[in-house]
Design a protein that fits this description.
Layout (H helix, E strand, L loop, with lengths): L12 H14 L3 H22 L28 E6 L1 E2 L2 E5 L3 E7 L6 E7 L2 H4 L9 E5 L5 E6 L10 E7 L4 E2 L10 E6 L4 E4 L3 E2 L4 E7 L6 E7 L7 E9 L6 E6 L7 E9 L5 E2 L7 E5 L26 H35 L2
Parallel strand pairs: 3-10, 12-19
Antiparallel strand pairs: 1-4, 2-3, 4-7, 5-6, 5-8, 6-7, 8-9, 8-10, 11-13, 13-16, 14-15, 14-17, 17-18, 17-19
């Protein structure tokens, strides 16, 4: 008789404990729930690690958000006004005649704020001249907004002027806000200007537009239009960047399709602070001449040769000619007779 024995390999202690746990678990109903819970917990942990969500001791993930260049409204403890544009390196500056975009906060609702430039804080406490003032409308929430054209008479170069404001009751002295410029630095005593290379051109010519007294290193758009308000562009606009001294130059080709007449040039900074012509300035214009018709050359007349007249012989010359013919004829006859006689004598007598 033979006996066969099945020898089971001896497992390590940790494996035996794990096997005993699942063997016992298989005899109980809640074993399946334990397995599902273990699997679900593992999957949840992997998902949390994969998504980078916050775990104990780990920093929270944040979405990148671009910071706004400037708050929407000035921050101040009381009524105030700030300059939104033109801004360069966090400072408001430019030539006279620039259009400043302003806003304010904490004013009495539905009122009007008067603004004016002041060389110092004392000027804000004085009554301003009417030719340098502007106004801002205040809405129901106390927010003021609008534009202000810098006066041509306030033109001290490299002078920083404060922006004073008053609603008739409250007068502010700039310096109560901390997030917007409230002073304007005058860079040029002359407003931005344009000059043209010619006042009249023909189709096919080139027009050069030059700018002066613009802000340095500023994009400027130049348009040529068929009306003073530049509603109808005549040529595609061009953009140019001003030089460090506030000048620029751009060229336009006058196409053959442009009908003769007056045309207007308009230039504006991209931020809208500078524009030519000014709101009350004379238009910058030039003329396109009517094409000159090319004359058709007429055929040159053919010159007929003039016959040279043969002079008629005079009577004297006619008589001389006849006499000469008679003499020659007589001599010819005589010589002929002499020859015949000589020949006859020679024939008879012999040699």
């Amino acid at each position: 008789m033979r006996f066969s024995f099945l020898v089971r390999p001896r497992l390590p202690a940790r494996a035996r404990a794990k096997t005993q746990f699942f063997d016992q678990c298989s005899r109980q109903r809640h074993c399946r729930a334990a397995r599902l819970g273990l699997c679900a917990g593992t999957a949840l942990l992997a998902a949390m690690l994969g998504l980078g969500l916050m775990l104990p001791g780990a920093p929270a993930a944040r979405l990148a958000r671009a910071a706004s260049a400037r708050p929407q409204a000035p921050i101040c403890s009381g009524p105030c006004v700030g300059i939104l544009s033109p801004i360069f390196n966090n400072a408001a500056e430019g030539p006279v005649g620039a259009t400043l975009t302003l806003d304010g906060a904490n004013w009495p609702a539905n009122t009007t704020v008067t603004i004016w430039p002041g060389v110092n804080q004392d000027a804000c406490l004085q009554t301003p001249s009417s030719n340098v003032t502007g106004t801002l409308a205040v809405d129901g929430s106390g927010t003021a907004s609008g534009t202000y054209v810098w006066p041509l008479s306030v033109n001290m170069v490299n002078q920083s002027y404060l922006l004073c404001a008053s609603d008739g009751v409250v007068t502010i002295i700039p310096g109560t806000q901390d997030n917007q410029p409230n002073s304007y630095l005058v860079l040029s005593a002359d407003p931005p200007a344009l000059s043209l290379s010619a006042s009249a051109l023909n189709q096919g010519d080139t027009l050069t537009v030059s700018g002066q007294n613009w802000k340095p290193a500023q994009p400027v758009t130049v348009n040529i239009c068929s009306d003073a308000n530049c509603v109808t562009p005549a040529l595609p606009s061009q953009q140019v960047t001003s030089n460090d001294d506030g000048t620029f130059e751009v060229q336009f080709s006058i196409s053959s399709s442009m009908p003769p007449g007056a045309y207007y040039v308009r230039a504006s900074a991209n931020d809208g602070a500078l524009m030519v012509p000014l709101s009350k300035g004379a238009p910058v214009q030039f003329m396109v001449n009517a094409p000159t018709p090319t004359p058709t050359p007429s055929p040159s007349p053919t010159m007929k040769p003039t016959p040279t007249p043969t002079p008629a012989p005079s009577r004297g010359s006619q008589s001389n000619t006849a006499l000469l013919i008679f003499v020659l004829g007589t001599l010819s006859v005589l010589f002929l007779i002499g020859g015949i006689i000589s020949l006859a004598v020679y024939t008879r007598t012999g040699p």
